[in-house]
Every structure is written in structure tokens, then in C-alpha cells.
Amino acid sequence: MLIVIGIALTSALLLLSVRVGTRSSLPVAVFSGLAAFFLLGPSFGLAPLMGWAAVYQMERGAGFGNVVAGALLPVGVFCLWLVFLSDNPQVLQERFDLVSEQFQSLGLEMDPQVMEAMIHLVLRVQPSVEFISLLLSFLLAFRLAFLLAPRFGLPFPEAPPMMLWRPWEELIWITIGALALSLLGVSWLADLALNAVVVMSVIYAAQGLAVLRFFFSAPRRAESVGAAFLYRAPTATGLGSYWVGLCRTVGYVV
Predict the structure, then answer these.
(1) Is the pTM of this model over 0.90?
(2) At a CB cut-off of 8 Å and minimum separation 6, what does 244 contact?
(3) Domain locations in the chain as residue ranges
(4) What is the pLDDT of residues 77-93, one digit of tens each?
(5) Is residue 5 classed exposed, middle or buried when 0-12, 13-18 and 19+ CB atoms within 10 A define those classes?
(6) Would residue 21 be called left, alpha or beta, if left means φ above 0 and alpha means ψ between -120 and 50 degrees?
């Protein structure tokens, strides 16, 4: 139910900003974001800002990829803040007490050390989970705004079909940088690297599904047979696509 509220908030700000412009809708985005922050939680406070930031990019003629990137900019700042909180002893103790109370109310018992390790792991990957969930909610809100725009007589661009999705090839460097950061032995850098790898793995999987859908949508293509044989998993397909782009970037002809 709460995720529906987040999608509705983002869609409402998308439509409002398209109608009146981002300059006029900025106060509404700020006040509604603050209200959602205090009433529903920090992640819901980002929903109106995501809608406003997306239209801000659209007003400047940005493509769909840049629109999504602009909408996720406040989300990235929020997730970075969560990374720093993951090693906070006070936050860890609060989560430990909350989960302990929930287990006790259910009549379940768990080793305190096992529970503490589980809570710490959840806190480590929480930024990536928040990022992915907010990304998904934005895509759904964008689609909802596109369906509702004709009812209000508003021009609203349609997102490209999934088979045409292609994230930037330069994103491969985020994965490479994350793997490098994980080797430095610094706690918060290791958490940052872990979350970056999780997010990029989901993006690669989506890219792989898009590639497979493209090939299966045209069964007469000769390449589709080789692609279906070569790429067995969506994530591997996405990584293969990015590896080709990386080779071209560094000058290796494939």
C-alpha cells in the first residue's frame, strides 16, 4: 500500500510540473516531500522530488536516460547517507532492539549474535534495496503519468519499450571502481562497493532481459540463435553487452 502512495506522489508531481512548469511546482514538491518525509518515512519524501527533477530534465530536452538519472540524483544522495549510517552503533542497536521485540511478540527465539549479524547485513545492503525500489517506483510512476496525461490534456513523452533499453556503456566503470574499493579494507568504502555492485547487477540483469526480448521479438534474425545460445542468464547478457562497449571505448575492435 505504501509503495502505491509513493508512485502516486511521483506521478502527481510529474503531471503538475508538466502543466505549470518546474519553477511554479517547486514549492509544492518541497512541501509535499517534507510532509511525506515526516509522515511516511525518508524514502517517501523523495517521491515528489523525483517527479519534479524528471520534468526539470525534460524541459531541457534530455533523453529518457538523462531524465531517469536526474530523478535518481536525490535518491543517490539519500542512499549515500544510508551507507554512512550502516556502521553507526546507535542505529544498529535501535534496529536490534526493534527486531528483538518483533521476534519476542511472535514467540520466536534467536541467538543474539546471529540476530545482530543478520541486522548488520540488512543495514549494509539497505541502500541498494532502497535505490532499486525507488528506481522501480519511478518507472511505474512515469508510465502512470503517461497514461493519465491525455485525460488532463497534457503532452507527456512515452518511455521507450523495454527491448530498446540500453543504459550508458560508461556504467561499467562503476562496477570496476566498486570492485577496486572493496579491496582497500576501509569499512564504509566496502559497504559502498557492495551496494554499487548490487545495483549494477540489477541494471545488468534488466539490460540482459531487454537484449533477450529484442532477439526473441525477431525470431528470423540469425543473431538471435547465437545470442540465445551464448547468453544463458540475463545478467551475463547485460555484462556481455557492456563488455563489447568497453572494448570499443578503449579502442579494441570487436
Answers:
(1) no
(2) 254
(3) 1-83+128-158, 160-254
(4) 998 888 887 767 777 67
(5) middle
(6) left
